[in-house]
Amino acid sequence: MNTNKFNHSGVKIINGEKKYGFLDIHDQWLINPVFDYLDDEFDEEGYLRAKHDNKWGYINYKGDWIIRPVFDQLSDAPFDEENYLGVKYQEKWGFIDRKGSWIIQPKFEQIADCFDHLDYCAVKFDAKWGFINRDDEWIISPDYDSVIAGEFLDVYDRENMVAVQYQGKWGWIDRQGHWLIDPVFDEVRGWFDDSERCLAKLHGKSGSINRKGEWKKFD
Questions:
Q1: Is 4 helix (H, G, I), strand (E, B) or coil?
Q2: What domains lie within the chain, and their CATH numbers?
């Protein structure tokens, strides 16, 4: 199929409701406007995110369902290099493959958008955050109140540090779950800037810390 003729998604008002289809370069419908929502671009495998009757799935260039619309929500990140995609189903998150089959069953309250470059994914289970690998094994047990995402799609930053909240206080752990900066801070921004400092509030006072955890109050 000549995919160059697919230009962009379009909207048509039908019975007072917005319906999405896909248009060619001449603004003619290639996929009829019958969907509640469509992404603007197909991915490299010819998959397009589509919403129908308030459920999400994927269609192909013909407008046929490749993955049936049964999911409450799709991860913001696309299928990754291992073809994992985070999806929400019946109020729980898990991961599917490109056939729509479960790789990791839906049992998490929340997940990070995707696995990072070392195959870690932050997930929330029984109201606590931890980290799993692609085999659905705990790398770091779910002991944390919250996690702050790092740079790009990685939760961990370039120095393999991640900010976590433990018993109401914030600190940083490494890839093994060991404390690099003890959890003593009231609030943190979560990531270090180009000067290797991070905003952090201690005892109600605003300041910043370096990667050693040395805190300096703002003047």
A1: helix
A2: 1-69 (no CATH), 72-144 (2.40.10)
